[in-house]
Please model this.
Amino acid sequence: QVQLVESGGGLVQAGGSLRLSCAASGRNSRNVAIIWFRQAPGKEREFVAAINWSGGSTNYLGSVKGRFTISRDNAKNTVYLQMNSLKPEDTAVYYCAVGGSYLYTESTSMAYWGKGTLVTVSS
Model:
């Protein structure tokens, strides 16, 4: 079992920044790939970014490349998503999940999910 708790969401103006955190706990919570997804109102959940267990490999949605950075602190068992140059279209509930690989981008292939944190970007 793995428990995931997201935090760091909020309201920010376009062009601003936020850092999301995903704290993992429980058996088998270490040495796993962590994937960030987001779901905007009325839209399907989409892949945003992923990181492998060591932090040495990452994967990004094309529209966030260069603006978002995923990283992890394995001593704290926490994964971060630094989001810069935010746009109104980044508004969504952001979820972190445990996946078999940082290359997996389909939400249906995730094993565990957090409850999400809301990010609202105003124009």
Q: What stands out?
A: The chain is about 0% helix and 50% strand. The two ends are 40 Å apart (CA to CA).
